[in-house]
Amino acid sequence: MTAEISVKELKGVGDKNASLLSKLGIYTVRDLLEYYPRAYDIFGLPENIAELREGSVAAIESIVPMRPAVLRTPRYLIVSMNASDPTGNIKLVWYNTPFIASQLKVGMRFIFRGRIIRKRGELVMSQPVIYSREAYIRKLSELQPVYPLTKGITNNLLLKLMKEALTLVGADEDALSAAVRKQYGLIRYKEALQNIHFPLSKENCIDAHKRLAFDEFVRFSALVRTMKENRKIEVNNYRITDFSACERLKESLPYRLTGAQEKVYGEICRDLASDTLMSRMIQGDVGSGKTVVAMLAILACVKQGYQACIMAPTDVLAKQHYEDFTKMLAPFDVRVELLTGALTAAQKRKAHESIKAHECDVIVGTHALIQDSVEYDRLALAVIDEQHRFGVNQREAIREKGDHPHILAMSATPIPRSLAIILYGDLDLSIIDEMPANRLPIKNCVVGTGYRPTAYGFIKKQIAEGHQAYVICPMVEESEMTEAENVIDYTDSLRAALGDESITVEFLHGKMKAVEKNAIMNDFSCGKIDILVSTTVVEVGVNVPNATVMMVENAERFGLAQLHQLRGRVGRGSAQSYCIFIKGSDSKEIDERLDILVKYRDGMQVAENDLRLRGPGDFFGTRQSGELVFKIADIYSDADVLKAATEYAGSMTREELLCFSRTQTNNWII
Ligand code: ADP
Ligand code: MG
Fold this sequence. Notes:
It contains 23 helices and 21 strands.
């Protein structure tokens, strides 16, 4: 297949660009062609300056009144110009693009298009693109693809490469026959690629999306089908029959299991004792208490002389599980070992030895658990926590570890049952659809930045009552480009604003060393830190029941699924908890979206209403990170395509399956 060739074969891709493209996961021409736009920009008519809204991308028309100002700071070279029209004025700013100044000749008229942001209280247009009126008119109502970029790779470069790459795809290169295309109402493969990158109209883009989403789902379903067929014959060599220790663990808990937890635990016990190996998925909203169910299953296995492991997506979460398991399983004479990337080489070697020699029973860790150098001794059960953060391949990798252990995956992704059955086709499904009874519903509010002092006052009160708080910011370091709050500076200004030395404020972000992260998380867990200012590294799984406030800065920048996960960090104990979503910019769309979180508590309802707002087939808006699971397909808005693709994948012959599996490089994350 011509598309399998290296991107280096394209004009304009030398070693430098090839290495930059590899950062985006692009190695072959096919990878490039499957690097789909994140969104489409639609150019509108120039607007009146007086009516510009913060946060929007807009065009204005103005003459250049005088030579633009050039300001040098240690990190930036800033070019700025005052634009005006009969309704008002606005400052335009460009960073590190000195050549802009020479383009802006006094007296010339241009159309400027860029994002409207607030800087030191005033609206400015950031990094506008400059057009002549004629050039702009040609762009009007065209769909401009917007690709996720990395430093050194521009949108224009990608467009240029796409154009060339498309010429390498044969007109009748197609994994689907004409009959299949007709049956499912799909366009040709090449046409779809052409139209997704260079759409002529919305409709034509929708057809392209449908075809490519279909292909992606077929590949996925074919993989699931193969996995399912492979496992049918797997005999249970780790039959567990004695659950008496589990009963004792249940009695030692400070609470009673909910009915839903009991039901799921029962399903697991039956699996473990049956003739065939367990492959089960527990689905349950954040805070529904999945961990303890996994702990019971693990205890049953190790009490019968086997090993069991639990894999978490982050060091922070793995460490937390390690501590919980160590504490709660201590009375049962169970030895727990931690294995993460954060360990030193010597510690890792020691852990590996202890695992191999069966000097530990439960191994808690991250991806490190599936590395080649790890050898288990009679691993009977592998638990995968937060499965939606791992890929299907990792689920397979852990199965291959040891000698085909029981698999228990856990996820909080809200997927309707009918879809979950398809997506997790190789797994049996258990659902925890009940929250522990001692929980008070979290109180939510969405407010502007003007509310910050009130929020701080409120947090102070909560701390005085012995509770703790999280503040989430989207960025790590300060950058001139955006006004998004960042954890490091924010921590300083928060300390100053609180003006109380006795309140301990610390920050946490993903770029910190694992040891530092663990230290901060430990201090927060045991109450030494009152306020944790963090990026979304705390989003998954972290459990500090004493924290009662979750404040999210620039909430408009996060996806709803992510915000719901963040909210799940509080309301984990019996005290009343609060969520404060601060909007950094204002618009009707933002209000509508955030309102969903206030109205709905349940993850499934949040997802459904998010979809309703976006509308099925709506992929013109920006896809939110954290919800992006397939390359192009969306399990919610393409649910119908998913069903059709699964039906087709189920009916495929071996040859057809092969035709698709040749391109099977994806590691889907659901
Ligand atoms: P998740 O499903 O999001 O992984 P966790 O397992 O972390 O949730 O549980 C959240 C919190 O709820 C923990 O502090 C846990 O001890 C507590 N918990 C679990 N089950 C119950 C229950 N039946 N009653 C009360 N609290 C519970
Ligand atoms: Mg969890």
